[in-house]
Structures are given as C-alpha cells and as structure tokens.
C-alpha cells in the first residue's frame, strides 16, 4: 500500500502553489507582445489613407 500525504500536507502544498501563481497579464500587454496592436494601427492608417484618396 502506498503512503498517501495527509490532508493538511495537501492543503499546504496547494497554498504554496497558489502563492506563486501570477494573474494573467493585461490584454493590452498580450496584444503588444503578439503584435496585434501594430496590425490594428496599420489597418486604421490604411483605411484613413483610402478615405482621404477617395
């Protein structure tokens, strides 16, 4: 039979894991890191230039 950890040991392990967990970064940071905001800016400029040329 395997020795199982005690309930208190499991609770402490979970507490330690939760302490080291970080919240996800803000959506703007994610967009900046994957370059989506650059695409949005380029699209906006292209639409603006298209409207000005018309």
Question: How would you characterize the overall build of this protein?
Answer:
- With 54 residues, the protein is mostly helical.
- The chain has a domain at 24-54.
- Helices cover 74% and strands 0% of the residues.
- It is built from 3 helices and no strands.
- The protein has helices spanning 7-20, 27-34, 36-53.
- The protein is rod-shaped and about 75 Å long.
- The relative contact order is 0.07.
- The model has no long low-confidence stretch (mean pLDDT 79).
H/I helix tally: 3
Fraction of residues in helices? over 70%
What's the β-strand tally?
0
| Shape by Cα distribution | rod-shaped
Q: Regions with pLDDT < 50 over 5+ consecutive residues?
A: none
Strand content: under 5%
Ends: how far apart?
Answer: 80 Å
Provide the gyration radius in Å.
Answer: 25 Å
Element order: H for helix, E for strand:
HHH
Structural class: mainly alpha
Largest sheet: none
Average pLDDT confidence is 79
Topology:
Layout: H1 7-20, H2 27-34, H3 36-53
Task: Characterize this entry briefly.
The chain has helices spanning 7-20, 27-34, 36-53. It is mostly helical and 54 residues long. It has a domain at 24-54.
């Amino acid at each position: 039979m395997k020795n199982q950890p005690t309930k208190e040991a499991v609770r402490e392990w979970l507490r330690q894991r939760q302490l080291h967990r970080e919240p996800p970064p803000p959506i703007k940071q994610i967009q900046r890191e994957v370059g989506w905001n650059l695409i949005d800016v380029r699209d906006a400029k292209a639409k603006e230039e298209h409207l000005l040329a018309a």
